[in-house]
# Entry
Amino acid sequence: MNKHRTLKAVGFLVVLLAVLAFLALPNGQAGGAKPIKWQATVTGANLIGSGPFVGGQDSVNINYGLGTNDTSCNTLGTGSYSYLELQVFNPSLQFIMNATTVGGTDDLNKAFGFPNTLSGWPNCIADFLNHYLQPTADYPHIILRFTTCGCDNSITDLMAMDRNGGILPVHMSLLLFSHIWGCPPSSPFTKETFLNLNMSAHGYVKTGASFPDIYIQRVGDVWTAYVDTAFDNPHYPTLLSYTSNSADWPVTKSDGILGQYATCDSPTKVKGKTTYTTTYHYPWAKAPLQFQIVFTKL
# Structure
């Protein structure tokens, strides 16, 4: 008898989806306070939005929140943090990215990649992102999140920033999720392409620069996130070839454009039972990424 397991595409996505209903509420609504409405506008060299986007309208969520003791966003330890994020469920974001210039040595030009692309990794990233408005039917959920964790900030609450041009380096995470994936090969989900994507970078001040490569600046009730990174923070160095039996993203270990690709390993038989093992591969790439997103509290 086959042991059939259906696994979630990403480990933390199980938890994330469980709280999406709560996060979808404007901040303060869950406690009965007056809801806060947000607007977001995306512009830049590599990412353009068809907005402005308004939270709670047209399949868009814009969330602000606080957290504590979350090691998933900080390799240096636990602590308080806050975040601003844009969640998009309808095609409305246009990527204009150059082909990636660096990729994981063991993963270059392998057959896996995004749907409807002919290139191998890492050029498939640019092919897929540039040719389609995002999100697509294959990747129906995009989360663009900025958090204060992992950047050695003395101020961790974005709402407590100086209203007159205060600046904080932040951690950017741009996630594209595909679908659930199943093992063994008889699972219908295994027949689909499985490759999730997370562009993760922690802001820092480069030598000779005046500002961090990823930071938020507050002026009144407007928080503008500036992104101009090559994913080269020396405190989060390149993650070389990495595989795991765990679906937990190793995003806190490295800055980069990180894929999550699952394979169903050859079955083993123990006492007459066939067991399949899922292995998660994490190919990486790097490319210049530059855009701005303006969050306005209405």
Remarks:
- The radius of gyration is 20 Å.
- The CA atoms of residues 10 and 249 lie 7 Å apart.
